[in-house]
Design a protein that fits this description.
This protein is mostly beta strands. It folds into 2 domains: 4-319, Beta-galactosidase, Chain A, domain 5; 331-416, Immunoglobulin-like (Sandwich). Helices cover 2% and strands 49% of the residues. The chain has helices at 107-111, 274-277; strands at residues 9-11, 20-25, 35-39, 43-48, 54-60, 63-64, 91-96, 115-121, 126-131, 142-150, 157-165, 171-182, 194-199, 211-213, 221-226, 229-233, 239-243, 249-254, 259-265, 280-285, 290-296, 300-302, 307-319, 326-327, 331-340, 343-350, 354-361, 367-376, 382-387, 396-403, 408-416. The protein is globular and about 70 Å long.
């Protein structure tokens, strides 16, 4: 396959309402770096192979969710044994636990140029694969691979991160996923508009509060914003939070503009996790002012000479104001489905283009009634406010979503009726 820097590919198919585009662009957005850009008409994903293959853009429409450090635009630093850390912003991966390498991060894994190529190029998906050189110093023998896939008609990005042990001895590592996100709007100090939400573990190892923090008195750690949901309000503090979330999701939100960016992932009950069994973490940075949304995999056994472990996340984006109460692969829930004398209400961000419909089921799951079809898209918040006359045997209501081709995506929300 030709090198990406020399290639411009367009993907189009009659079934797609919007083209999916793959474009390697020189000096993308005047950043001073070349980037590989994947688009599908809803989202834009930009990866910079030169600086550790960081994801430097994940936008829904024109709204950004990734922090880019203007102080480092266009810079590149040759990785060296005594390298200091240069904070470009973006999304990256480090091996965990951190106490095995302390600070700074492994310089080759963090900032060396990565190999990059398009692995999949079909009407159904596009996948970009990147690979690091082998780390020589702080975690010798480790190598990273990452595969990023996008799909038509959805804000979904699948991020599959693989840690590879190229060393001569077996080793044990976790994949640590770190995404830097804006903590204020450009030219403003409106920190109060930027939040992170995640579910609390009622049997948390951290006690009744459900989290461990490096500064217990920080007002950024708001606590429960809804039953079982913890909220972090950004403040420039240089402080960190750890949580053993019982469900595999965490969500960053710009509340003023009404955009939510969620990450979903599998949990492995009983597995060993680093950082005292944290599954999600939040870092608040003071200068520059940004926050980090972090997800941690279990610690994996890596055989010598090529042993590998892959941890998979899905990224999602939608227009909706929080607090975010739940996230699944259909959408984000801001107001749970409720019924009052036949009037059904709920408020959501939907991750797919298509149609949503309220459905009433009996105890056996048979459809008794259906509401009207509502067009949905990640670019617009979806509020349900619909009346259905209740019939005998109604046991459960669901908000079901289909994609643009009428295929079932899944259940956005549900509620018991008795």
């Amino acid at each position: 396959m030709p090198r990406l820097a020399l290639t411009l590919l367009l993907l189009a198919a009659p079934s797609l309402l919007a083209q999916t585009r793959i474009a390697p662009l020189t000096n993308y957005k005047n950043w001073g770096w070349d980037a590989v850009v994947l688009e599908n008409g809803l989202i834009t994903l930009a990866v910079v192979p030169r600086i550790g293959a960081r994801i430097m853009q994940y936008d829904l429409g024109s709204h950004p969710s990734i922090f880019v450090n203007d102080r480092e635009l266009g810079n590149f630093y040759e990785p060296l044994p005594d390298s200091v850390w240069h904070n470009y912003g973006g999304f990256k991966n480090w091996p965990a636990p951190q106490d095995r390498w302390n600070w700074p991060p492994p310089p080759i894994l963090d900032g060396a140029p990565y190999e990059a190529r398009i692995e999949v190029d079909t009407p159904d998906s596009v996948a970009l694969w990147v690979s690091s050189p082998v780390e020589q110093w702080r975690t010798p023998g480790l190598r990273f691979e990452r595969r990023m896939s996008i799909y038509p008609g959805t804000s979904r990005v699948r991020v599959a991160q693989t840690i590879v042990n190229e060393g001569e001895e077996a080793d044990r590592w976790s994949v640590w996923e770190i995404s830097q996100a804006p903590g204020h709007h450009p030219g403003e100090r409106d920190f109060e508009n930027f939040w992170v939400y995640f579910p609390l573990n009622p049997q948390s190892r951290y006690g009744a509060r459900g989290v461990r923090t490096t500064m217990d008195t920080a007002s950024a750690w708001v606590g429960q914003v809804a039953p079982g949901i913890f909220g972090v309000r950004f403040m420039p503090l240089n402080q960190k939070l750890f949580a053993d979330a019982p469900e595999g999701w965490i969500c960053y939100a710009d509340e003023r503009e009404g955009y939510a960016y969620a990450r979903t992932f599998e949990l492995f009950p009983g597995a060993e996790y680093p950082d005292s069994s944290a599954t999600v973490e939040v870092w608040l940075n003071k200068d520059p002012a940004y926050l980090e949304v972090e997800v941690v995999s279990p610690i994996a056994e890596l055989a010598p000479k090529g042993g590998r472990y892959t941890f998979v996340e899905d990224w999602w984006a939608a227009r909706v104001k929080g607090p975010i109460l739940a996230v699944n692969q259909v959408g984000a829930v801001a107001q749970r489905l409720a019924v009052d004398q036949g009037r059904f209400t709920g408020r959501y961000g939907v991750f797919h283009e298509g149609r949503a419909r309220l459905v009433v089921l009996d105890e056996g799951g048979q459809v008794l009634q259906q509401g009207v079809e509502h067009p949905v898209t990640p670019l617009e918040s979806f509020s349900l406010d619909e009346e259905i006359k209740m019939v005998q045997g109604a046991a459960r209501a669901q908000v079901q979503v289909q994609d643009r081709q009428g295929r079932e995506v899944g259940i956005l929300d549900s509620a018991a009726l008795k």
